Amino acid sequence: MTVTETRTPLPDAATLRRPAAMRLMWLAVSFAVLATLSVASVAFGVRDVALNDILAGLGGDTGGVAQAAVVARVPRTVLAILVGAALAMSGAAMQAVTRNPLADPGILGISGGAALAVVVGIAFFGMSDPYAFIAASIVGAGGAAVFVYTVGSLGRGGATPLKLALAGAATSAAFMSLVSAVLLPRVDLLETFRFWQIGGVGGATWDRIATILPILTAGAVITLVCARGMNSLALGDDVATGLGEHVLRTRLIASAGAVILCGAATAIAGPIAFVGLIIPHLCRLLVGTDHRWLLPFSAVAGAVLLVAADIVGRVIARPDEIEVGILTALIGAPFFIWIVRRQKVREL
């Protein structure tokens, strides 16, 4: 008699469901962690400050070194929160639109396209207005997204996750090489942008945050409006169409929101990779796949990751610091390999 071995497939993130109470609990925990890390971000750095110095600095006292440090760290912390939230939401939207578990602004070359557009605009067109930086970054991100999706769609099978990941990796490498080629002959620009090219939140100011905040808000609103449509896309195009969803329109609008978030975040903080890959996968394990929950939860968790990376980068390399783009790459590269092995690059 032949015995046929049967294996029960392991449940993946796409099969998980979570009750509302558990989702609210995880969301509250995430906010608590973010608040704790925000205080730590203000307290720790090249010079640690005490609680009374933090309160004095927040109260407007800049007479001492410690209070001045607090005043300088607060906008940096706020910027890390905004950029982390934007990149995480962008990654979650891209994964939903492409049904690709490897979708991420960095992996798909979108951050690279934004970075190249900014550098070209400064080097050849003399851009200096911050809104011009943001516009160039968003246009570059959108062009890169269209290019990668077009290349990944060529051949049999259309835009499979594997082809999109390969096209994105090759495009990202080409874009960053072009960025270096533009900067290397220009020593003045190279000195200014060598840290921006790595990706970081140092040098944050309230003026820069005020410039970027309305654009990030617009991108977040566009993405959140498409949350229900993203749930339909997860069922497949045919089923989504049968449910009355306009598949092409949903994809275009959601993609526009993701590109705006990624482009604006890249313009102000440089190309920071893997936040949009790591966070949505972890959040699916905690709150399930409903994008009405997943998107806001990803925003909070992305902020937690980037604030934590910024704190670690400042503490472990005193009196210097390690940019957050390096730390997210160190965390994200092994996670990327794990996703490839676990998902076997199949669609979401």
Radius of gyration: 21 Å
Question: Roughly what percent helix?
Answer: over 70%
Number of structurally distinct domains: 1
Structural class: mainly alpha
Distance between the amino and carboxyl termini: 38 Å
Mean pLDDT: 84
What is the strand content? Answer: under 5%
What name is given to the CATH topology? ABC transporter involved in vitamin B12 uptake, BtuC
Number of strands: 0
Shape: globular
What's the level 1 CATH class? Mainly Alpha
Q: Which CATH architecture is right?
A: Orthogonal Bundle
Secondary-structure element pattern, one letter each = HHHHHHHHHHHHHH
Number of separate helices: 14
Protein name: Putative siderophore transport system permease protein YfiZ
Family: Belongs to the binding-protein-dependent transport system permease family. FecCD subfamily.
GO molecular function, one term: transmembrane transporter activity
Membrane topology: Multi-pass membrane protein
Structure, described:
The chain is mainly alpha-helical and 348 residues long. The chain has one domain (75-341): ABC transporter involved in vitamin B12 uptake, BtuC (Orthogonal Bundle), CATH 1.10.3470. Helices cover 73% and strands 0% of the residues. It has 14 helices and no strands. The longest helix has 34 residues, at 65-98. Mean pLDDT is 84; it is low at 1-16.
